[in-house]
Amino acid sequence: MIDTKLRKFGIWSLFILIILTFGLRLFYFGTFFLIKRVDPTIFCRHASDNMYADDIYFSAEAEETGILSDFNEKIDGFQEVVNSCIISSNNYELRLFLDEHIEEVLAVAKENNIYIDYLKNKGSSLECLSEYIHNMAKLDDNILQMAMYLSFVVICIVSLTKFKYRKSFYVASAIVYLIAMTSIFSNGLTDYIVSNIFAFVAKINKETFTYIDMNIVKEYFLDTLKESMMTVVIFDTIFQFKQSERNTKRIKDIRYVYQSLDMQIAYLRDIYNSSDKYIARLKVPSYCIEKECYKEAKKWGKALKRQKVKNSYYVKYKTRYETNISLYEKLQWIRTNCNEAYSSEYYVNYLQQIKELMIECGYNSI
């Protein structure tokens, strides 16, 4: 039993590692690819507060004002970043560089009267330029946070459905939500306490953890984890409500089938003579028990295959598997029988066998 739990935990840990390694990249790069395929202008419209579909601030037309040349001459490191972006075919470093040197960028742009006039003609200003640069610099971080959120959602869903860690998930959700909300209501004051705990754990591993690291953990990990957990909690609550409704109906149908067996046996004994030949069918919703028997037989069949030796568990699993299979076949036959005729005595014995199998499977106590 312990080995099984450890094996399950190991598979779960490996699954999380795979999602955070490959799933995160899939969501991250997939979002960029999807946006470019759907509408490449989304990035510029988002950064310019939906004012422009193209990059008017650093376009070829803007370069005619000499603004990029001014940046190259007056801002140290600008050309190196541009060259790096050309080599990597990714302008993320340039967007980040401009945002980090926003004061210098605005100062240089302010001295270029041609560029100022250009912006006025486009219905923009230096304030809009500053906002545009900041939004473009945050673009990758925003998509990364979304990718982490989706990755955590997948992890939470699989942990609930596949690995059956429902209790652990809800406990973890409550703890994460408690940490996140105390941080919000205290305006970050409790982050010092949490960062000290993390720092103590890091110290054991001969590493360091500071309050600045806590801010990064909050932004990229804690907040996205909290929201993903709350999302899954909402959907799981709805699912559990629907599951409860279905389970109530299932119990009602099973009780109805079990209690009706005596009535059908009595009916056959009173109405028909044992010598009469006829076709009898079970006119009750026995498919609910058939479905349960099929699921149980599948479960015990898998458990039986995992047993390498014939021990007490093997006998237990085999008995439950065969009992459910037998009940499933008998219920299905008598519910669908439409060709073969038998005596009332045969049907009475058959129904009694079904009743005994239901008792053996525990459906009489539901």
Topology:
Blueprint: H1 2-38, H2 42-47, H3 60-63, H4 67-74, H5 78-88, H6 92-100, H7 102-111, H8 113-121, H9 126-161, H10 166-185, H11 191-204, H12 211-271, E1 277-278, H13 287-306, H14 312-336, E2 342-343, H15 344-361
Antiparallel strand pairs: 1-2
Helix pairs in contact: 1-9, 4-7, 5-6, 6-9, 7-9, 9-12, 10-12, 11-12, 12-15, 13-14, 14-15
Describe this structure in words.
This protein has a two-stranded antiparallel ribbon with strand order 1-2. Helix 5 (78-88) packs antiparallel against helix 6. The chain has 15 helices and 2 strands. It is mainly alpha-helical and 366 residues long. The chain is elongated. Among the domains are: 2-143, no CATH class; 272-365, no CATH class. Helices cover 79% and strands 1% of the residues. The protein has helices spanning 2-38, 42-47, 60-63, 67-74, 78-88, 92-100, 102-111, 113-121, 126-161, 166-185, 191-204, 211-271, 287-306, 312-336, 344-361, and strands spanning 277-278, 342-343.
What descriptors fit this protein?
15 helices; 366 residues; 1% strand; 79% helix
Strand order of the largest sheet: 1-2
**What structural class do you assign from the helix and strand content?**
mainly alpha
Count of helices?
Answer: 15
Radius of gyration: 34 Å
Poorly predicted ranges (pLDDT <50, ≥5 residues)? none
Q: Portion of residues in helices?
A: over 70%
Q: Quick one: how many beta strands?
A: 2
The shape is elongated
* H/E element order: HHHHHHHHHHHHEHHEH
Biggest sheet descriptor: 2 strands, antiparallel
- The proportion of strand residues reads under 5%
